[in-house]
Design a protein that fits this description.
- The chain is of the alpha/beta class and about 280 residues long.
- It is built from 12 helices and 9 strands.
- α4 links the parallel β4 and β5.
- The N and C termini lie far apart (about 40 Å).
């Protein structure tokens, strides 16, 4: 059986749908914190189990009978995220999984300026140290992140953000399909993958230009200093730790951490990747 965690989330739900196009529903299981939210999957024959990374004891049942387990990185921050990921990995291994897959990131590194990459790097290292085949899916930077900034830019005509650098904006739908392929065709991606990215690199200046074209109104890219931007964000209700977390993304982008594009994703999909323009078109 193939087990997917976080199956009601933005990425996990898409992976399940793509996987069900490839394997029978009775060969798929999901581990979710709230089984009620996955009732529609149960009705289709998917095995729905309750599991929470922060409560490892319950994962034994969630992963029972697993042949392959896809662990979607815990949606928490800091050391707790690493501990949660490791707990899920240990549970999958104890359940007898022959391969463990993990949703990592293209910029996973222990010296990254963006905090999630430290979590991914530590989790990858832990996986690699086990005596079990694994796949660390180094996903490109999620294009859905753009949605956090588009609304204000459309209202004011200005995209006001800290200095940045190029991002390899990659659509959830493409990454979900890649994960489904890796789950259904065991071994097609082995170990730490190359960056799974769309081919186009865009900074926020380019994003502003695309928004201008799509709306017919000029959207100006305005660069704010880090402290200036953080103060404005906090004044508008963003918790200070969240603002500092976001600044890490921009600092990493300035250093070029996300300025990497690779053909692996498109080769795996057998088609062009969804461009960032199409993602933006869906939110303007």
């Amino acid at each position: 059986m193939i087990i997917i965690t976080g199956a009601t989330g933005q990425l996990g739900s898409r992976i399940v749908e793509r996987l069900l196009e490839r394997v029978p529903a009775n060969e798929v299981g999901v581990s979710v914190r709230d089984a009620a939210k996955a009732s529609s999957l149960a009705e289709r024959g998917v095995h729905v189990r309750t599991g929470d990374f922060t409560e490892p004891a319950g994962l034994e049942h969630a992963f029972e009978g697993a042949d392959r387990v896809l662990i979607i990185s815990a949606a928490i921050r800091g050391d707790a995220a690493v501990a949660a990921n490791k707990a899920a990995i240990d549970a999958a291994r104890a359940a007898g999984a022959r391969r463990i897959l993990y949703t990592s990131h293209q910029a996973a590194a222990k010296d990254s300026l963006f905090a999630p990459q430290l979590t991914h790097a530590d989790t990858e290292e832990y996986l690699a140290g086990l005596d079990i085949p694994f796949t660390a899916l180094r996903n490109g930077f999620y294009a859905s992140t753009l949605g956090y900034y588009v609304g204000a830019a459309l209202r004011t005509g200005e995209l006001v953000l800290p200095e940045d650098g190029p991002f390899s904006w990659t659509a959830h739908d493409d990454l979900a399909e890649a994960a489904a392929i890796a789950l259904a065709d065991d071994g097609v991606l082995d170990g730490v993958t190359p960056p799974l990215t769309a081919p186009e690199l865009l900074d926020f200046e380019a994003v502003a230009a695309i928004l201008s074209e799509l709306t017919g109104h000029r959207i100006k890219r305005v660069t704010a200093g880090d402290d200036e931007w953080k103060a404005a964000a906090v004044a508008n209700g963003v918790p200070e730790p969240a603002a500092e977390f976001t600044l890490g993304m921009f600092r990493a982008a300035r250093r070029g951490e996300f300025a990497v594009a690779d053909p692996t994703l498109e080769k795996l999909l057998g088609r062009p990747a969804i461009p960032a323009r199409a993602v933006l078109q869906g939110v303007v």
